[in-house]
Structure formats: C-alpha cells, structure tokens
Design goal:
By secondary structure, the protein is of the alpha/beta class. It has 30 helices and 22 strands. β21 and β22 form a beta hairpin. α1 runs parallel beside α11. The chain is globular, with a radius of gyration of 29 Å.
Length: 758
C-alpha cells in the first residue's frame, strides 16, 4: 500500500516541490472547517429553521445540532482511500477512480459493525432513546450519500464497479495518523478494504456490507412520519451548504464562525420594508387594497389583480409583518422581471439586498463593480455564498425552487432559504414544473409565509392551489381599478395594412407595442417596419446578452413619460413580464389567454379612478403558425376575444378576468408533487425546475477568442438559439458548455439579433 504523509481533500498548486499542503487542502482540517460551518448555522439560525419546518425546538434543535456536526465530519471520509489520494497527487487519472468518495463515506457509516459507525454513534451522545441513534444515523447517511448530487439511480452500478485503475481492492486509510487524530479514543485498530470478488464489494473477511438505498426501513419512516421527512431533507441541504462554506478560502482574519454568524444574522426589519413602500408611493397613503395585503395574517396569501394595481408595493407591506426577523425572497418568473423589480424597488433603498439569477452579474455591471480578474466559475461560487448575507434577495423563482428540485444553487443557498419568507410574483406565468415545485416547497416548509401574486390565475391552477394548501387567504383585485374602461378590441387586416396603421400612430407621436409569438416573426416585422421608415426597435431573446440588456433599456426609456417621440417596439413574450412600460397602442398575435392578459397589462397601464383617461386600441392578428403554443389554447383565446367583442367596448381588466374564468375548463390537472430533494431516496438526482425548452446557448466563432481570455464574462456573449439539427450542431465544438457556431452559420446584427443563415 502506498504511503501518504498527509491525507488531502483536494489537489492544490504548490509554489515549491516540497511545500507542505495548506490547511484548506488537507482532509481532516477540511472536515473540521465544514463542521464549524454547520454548527454555526444551527447556533445562529437553528430555531428559525425548525419553526419554518414546523418542528418543535425540543427535541429537534438538539437532534439537528448533533446530526449536522456528524454529517459534516463524515461527508468526505470516503476520500481517505489510496485511489483518491493517488488522484489528488497526480498519480492516478481521475477517470480511473473505482468509486465515488461519498458512496464510500455512506458505506462506512451504514454498516452496523463498522468502526466509523461506532465513532459516529459516540458523537451523537444519545442515552435515553434507544431508536433515536439509529434514526439519526440513517438521516446522516442520506445527507452524506447525497451531498454531491452525483449518486444517481445507477448507484448500484457505481458500488459494483470497483474494477477501475487501482487493481482488485480499495483500501480505506482509517489508521493513518491524520484519521487517528480525528477519531480520538475511537480509533480503528486496522484498515478497512473493499475487495473485488466477481465484481461484488465485500469487507475483508468476506462479510458483506448491508447497505440498500431503496429498501431500508428509513424510507418507511420518512413516508409515515412527515416530521422526520422534513428533518432529513433539511439535514441533507445544510450538509451541502456547510461543505461549500467550509471549503471557501475565506480570509484568515475572517474565521468561518464569525462569517456565518454575520451573514445569517442579517434579516428583515419591518420599518425598513415600510420605508421601501413610502419611497415607492412618494409619501402617499397606501390604498385599501394594499393595506389588506399588508394586514393578511394567513401563512399563504393569494392576490389576483391586474397590472398597475400596486401589488408590488403591497408585497413589501406584507413583508413588514411576515418577513420580520427572516430573509425575504422576492421571486419573479424571468431574469428580466427580477432585474426590473430589483432596480425599481430595492436598489436605491437602505435595505441590504442582492439580485440573484443566472445573469445577475451581467445585469448589474452598470451599477456595481465586478472584478475583471475573477473567472466566471469563481464568481458563481462566490454567488452561492453571497446569498446567505442580504436581508432581501430579488431573484428568479428558480433560485428558491432549486431547493426542492435538489439543484446545487438551492442546496448551497439553503441556510438562507430555510430562513425565508417568500413572495412569488406573476404566478400565472409558471409552467407546470415550476408550479409543482412551488407546491412542494410550501409542503416542505409548513411554518414559512408565502405571498402569491398573479394578474389572472387560470381556474385549474387556482383549484389545485386551494385543494393542496390549507388556509389560504384570498384578496381580490380593487374594484375601483379593475372596473376602469381601458381597451378597445379590433381584428387587424393581414398584410401591410396594420403596419400602415401603426406608422400613422408613430408619426402622431404614439408609443406602439407589437408582440409576436416567435423571434423569427418579430424580426420579420421589424425588418418591414424599417423598410417603411417607421421609427422602430426590437427586443427579444435572441441577442448577445450584452446587446439584449441595451435593447431592453432602450425600449423602456423610449416609452418613459418624458419621451415625446413616437416609437414602434416589436417584441416577443419577453414583453409580457419584463417590460415595465405604458403603451398607447397594442398589436398582438393570438396567444393563450393568460399571455394576452399579460400583454394587455402593458397598455393604458397608469390610469386611476381619478384620471381614467380614454380606452386604447388593441389590434389582434392571427398567428403565423401555432408555435410555441397548443392549438386548443389558441382556439380558446380566439373564443375569448370574440366573446369580449360581443360584449361591446370599452373593456376593463375585470371584463378580461370574468370572461377568462367563464371559458376556462373546470377539471383539475394532475401534477407531480414529489420532490427530488428527498423523495428520490438517498441517491441525489437533480430535477428540472422548468419544462424543457428547445434552445441552446451559442457563442459566435468571432467571439470565441475573447471568451477564452481571463476575466471575460462569457454570459454577455451567449446567444440563446433554437435547436437546428440541420446545421450539424452535434459536431460543433464547445466552450464551458456552450456551442461554438462555425463562421457563416449565424448572421448577427446588434439591432436585429441573431438569425440562421439560409
């Protein structure tokens, strides 16, 4: 057996050949650092986390403290084997590892005769309740086995594939001096080896390891006792989070206990939330509708109201009550809506806030300093930990729902999420996968508060919500705002006729919003408008992100109250939520009713009962094709438009919602309510948060060299393109998971965006 002077947790770059490894790279110091992180999380936030989980402080706080300490100390024990140590010292190819370290850690803990299990039992210090030790250890095994999200449903194959590059056995180095120091008086007296006999892993001595992820009695206990289910799920998440925090190379003057304490102690103060509202309302008194939301006492509050009713300001009034002493997560369906929500409400306040989504770094380049010498990967790691600190996190819903879908970002952010109060806006825009994940989150956190807001929630969705979640307080839209006449519906003539009408409005100084169902259609309309010399801009998803940000800002500013020039903005579904603007005229292709209601929310947006103004015109067009919607949804939308036209004009938001609910089907749709967070078993399978999309991230060949330079944020150069197999995409080169488009395949224009070259 190869001798190792020290046991390593990771590889490291030595400045000199004989330089001793730093503490962060050594296995035992790493285990102790993770333990410190986990213990401090419990000390600072344990009671709040348990209240969110609806678990009594006694006895669960003691259980959480002890179990998390042990899980943190044991999570990487599997790295103490000869194959892993050869790998981190460069003596073994990583692909030749015989078994993943977390599987080995779990095996060492699960075997009832293992010295590691005896040591773990001693750390749990359970004296009176005989079964408690085994239950806690089962939960710890689950946390340890799943902390890297790489033990999938083929875990058995992983356990049996020990015929890799290290011969016929795998030696656990439990008697190494480093490990002896960790185990103290419970030191193993001999090494443990996994030998290979016809591919079957055995302990030395031919004693089989009794370890089965699927049939263990623990699974039955979790099903029958929801408290243990929630506890085990939280333990798994917090172990992942503590591992990230303990692995962080924090400054020497910032001990990990102090860092965790400072970050998790930053929570919402009610007076600060009220100040956000005061600034937003310009000192005006909140409306009765807004006060009702702020005064809601139920755990879950559902608000259905159209655009311009003041829901967002009311949400911060709600937060003054429900988020006091917690973290506030303000969740939007898209990156655009999240960014606008952050800039519009929080950015200029004194509240400690953070914008979090996949492109947040790029979105904030104009208002915050981002270091040029930090790689994208490093920024993402920093981002995971930085979510622990702010009082308010403005984000896409994915950031929070990632927890129940067992995604890394959600698990790494779990200390903050488990301390959270949650506002989910634009609920009607959630697809089935997102909606199911939201229901799972509310089930997993029965002690947390949720505010759900929507312009008009489909009847099926509302029925599911009310049947699956107890005690929801419903707050209807303010009648005085919903009843204002806002819209006049017209069917537009096909061809150039509607463009000529639009041109007349633009020449007259009007702001016209044209919403298409596909990017290709938006690009075609924009090109036609330019040929007719209409003052036009286009905004859609198929731009380099750095250009998309500029298109977004150009459109929003051009529709601002101080801008007098006429303009046509040709957009896609991105206008339904991310554009905070008030148009004079709307042109829209027929789309599902919920999408049309959102598009209508961009028109005549700022009317009030005191200043109702004149109704504004909506032109509807037959879509060029069914994509990306279902034929039935488009047919129902046409029925809706025609029914409203028969009622006569002008129409109010109340008319839109009433007719929508009259046409919507009544039957409840079946949704999967399981969560990969724990329901998938001890193995850790990440699940999809959103329904699959037919798009891929592409980098143009001309941008490849720049993207490969140190410090360049490649997010700004990515273009989301529809999948096109006929372009031979399967053979394209990749860079950091992004396809490199060969020269001559994609045409790109900063004003038009990207198009496939025909």
């Amino acid at each position: 057996m190869t001798h190792f002077d020290v046991l390593l947790a990771k590889s490291w770059d030595a400045a000199a050949p004989n330089e001793a490894p730093p503490a962060y790279a050594r296995l035992v110091p790493h285990l102790r650092a993770v333990e410190k992180a986990g213990a401090t999380v419990v000390k600072v936030a344990g009671e709040l986390i348990l209240r969110q989980l609806d678990l009594p402080i006694d006895p669960w706080l003691s259980r959480l403290d002890r179990a998390l300490r042990v899980a943190c100390l044991c999570h990487d024990l599997g790295k103490a084997n000869d194959a892993f140590q050869k790998m981190v010292t460069g003596k073994l190819d990583p692909t030749q590892q015989p078994a993943r370290h977390e599987l080995l850690s779990a095996l060492l803990l699960a075997d009832r005769d293992s010295p590691v299990r005896r040591w773990a039992k001693s750390l749990l210090e359970v004296e009176q309740v005989s079964d408690e030790t085994d239950w806690l250890l089962d939960c710890i095994v689950g946390a340890v086995a799943g902390h890297h999200l790489k033990l999938d449903e083929e875990w058995k194959k992983a356990a049996l594939s020990l015929q890799g590059g290290c011969g016929t056995s795998l030696h656990m180095l439990l008697t190494h001096p480093d490990m002896q120091h960790l185990f103290a008086e419970h030191r193993p007296v001999h090494e443990i080896s996994f030998s290979l006999v016809n591919g079957q892993p055995e302990w030395i001595g031919a004693r089989r390891t009794p370890f089965n992820f699927h049939s263990h009695r623990w699974q039955d206990k979790l099903v029958n006792e929801p408290q243990w289910w929630r506890f085990a799920a939280a333990l798994k998440a917090l172990t992942c989070a503590a591992d990230v925090a303990g692995s962080a190379m924090l400054p020497e003057k910032e001990p990990i206990r102090r860092w965790v304490t400072q970050t998790l102690s930053h929570r919402v103060v009610s007076d600060q939330m009220r100040e956000v509202v005061r600034i937003r309302l310009n000192g005006k008194e909140p409306r009765l509708f807004q006060k009702q939301i702020g005064e809601s006492t139920k755990r879950v509050t559902l608000v259905e109201a159209g655009c311009g009713t003041g829901k967002t300001a009311a949400a911060y009034l709600w937060a003054a009550q429900h988020a006091q002493g917690k973290k506030l997560f303000f969740c939007y369906p898209t990156t655009g809506t999240a960014t606008e929500g952050f800039l519009g409400y929080i950015h200029e306040s004194e509240v400690e806030a953070k914008l979090m989504h996949s492109r947040a770094i790029a979105d904030l380049e104009g208002i915050a300093e981002v270091s040029d010498d930090e790689s994208e990967d490093h920024l993402l790691r920093i981002d995971s930990l930085s979510a622990w600190s702010p009082q308010v996190i403005v984000c896409t819903a994915d950031t929070v729902l990632a927890l129940v879908r067992n995604n890394r970002r959600g698990l790494y952010n779990s200390p903050a999420i488990l301390c959270g109060a949650f506002v989910f806006d634009e609920l009607h825009a959630y697809d089935d996968a997102m909606f199911a994940a939201l229901l799972a989150l509310m089930k997993a956190l029965p002690g947390a508060s949720f505010l759900l807001m929507s312009a008009s929630l489909p009847k099926q969705r509302k029925s599911i919500l009310l049947s699956r979640v107890d005690g929801i307080e419903q707050i209807p839209a303010p009648k005085e705002l919903e009843a204002i006449p806002r819209y006049e519906f017209q069917w537009a003539e096909p061809g150039d006729a509607v463009l000529n009408v639009v041109r007349e409005h633009v020449v007259a100084g009007k702001k016209v919003l044209w919403v298409c169902n596909t990017v290709a259609r938006a690009q075609s309309i924009f090109a036609q408008a330019r040929r007719l010399e209409v003052n036009a801009k286009t905004y859609h998803s198929r731009f380099k992100y750095e250009d998309r940000k500029q298109r977004h800002r150009d459109v929003v500013d051009a529709f601002g109250p101080g801008e007098r020039s006429g303009l046509l903005a040709v957009t896609t579904q991105v206008a339904e939520m991310s554009l905070d603007l008030d148009a004079d005229v709307l042109v829209s292709e027929v789309a599902p009713i919920s999408a049309l209601i959102q598009r209508l929310g961009r028109l005549n947006r700022r009317v009030t009962p005191e200043q109702p103004g004149k109704p504004r015109t909506v032109f509807f067009l037959e879509p060029s094709n069914e994509r990306p919607y279902k034929e039935d949804d488009l047919a129902l939308a046409k029925q809706w438009i025609e029914a409203l036209q028969r009622e006569g004009c002008p129409l109010s938001q109340d008319d839109l919602a009433r007719r929508f609910h009259a046409l919507a089907p009544n039957e409840e749709k079946s949704l999967p309510l399981g969560t990969e967070w724990l329901d998938s078993g001890w193995h850790a399978v990440p699940g999809a948060i959103r329904e699959g999309a037919c798009s891929v991230s592409v980098i143009l060949s001309e941008d490849e060299a720049a993207c490969r330079q140190s410090g360049v944020n490649i997010i700004n150069r990515k273009i989301p393109m529809n999948f096109a197999a006929w372009h031979g995409m399967g053979a394209w080169r990749e860079f950091k998971g992004n396809l490199i488009a060969p020269e001559g395949v994609i045409d790109y224009d900063k004003e038009m965006g990207a198009t496939w070259r025909t």
